[in-house]
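Recap slide: TLCD2 protein, sequence and predicted structure.
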Amino acid sequence: VSPGLLVVAGSFAAFRLLNRELERLVPPPPSARRNRWKWRNIWTSLAHRALPATHNSSPHRFCLHPELSEDLVGTHPPGAHSLVAVSVGYFLEDFVDMLCNQKLHQSWELLFHHSVVIVCFGIAVLLHQYVGFALVALLVEINSIFLHLRQILLMANLVHTTCYRLNSIINLGTYMVFRIATLAWMAHWLFLNRQNVPPATYAVGTAGMAIMTPMNIILLYRLLRSDFFK
């Protein structure tokens, strides 16, 4: 069994256990008790989203290893492969969690998103290649911290507070930097390096970008309409 797959399995089990214990660790406020599953799910997601922002994750690695920006196929620093494998385990856990607890018409967008991420990151884990490209993709998750804080504040009925307004501004700023700009850079890199990437992998990457980009533009429109143009 590949060590990467063992990390994926361990990550899945760890996030599953965290999900079950979160209601005890972070009790839901009265306004969120009618949807306890979503409360646990958001906090579990927040725990994963914090990983790319930690000392040993994506931004820090690009500062210490500038060669990553030149070779996203074969170059990756120690621990980067494990970080991507941990993310695959999380997305698998969240996929199963939504499938078991939410109606399909409510979760199909996220299930579709997770399927694309699992396939793309799974290729990096199994082949030990494109790990650098996956690390760039994990920069997107830095913005997801503020997206999930927004959901927590909404569920806690704190929408008319300074904290919510401040989070909305930071959320929009990080959305443009870590989500829109990052996806644009990834698409540009993929286009420039199309001759160096095997056709099958290039097709998967192109399809992933073609799916992710419209989804994120639509989400940006929803955020602007909800938090700024209401």
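The two ends are 52 Å apart (CA to CA).
The mean pLDDT is 87.
(End of recap.)
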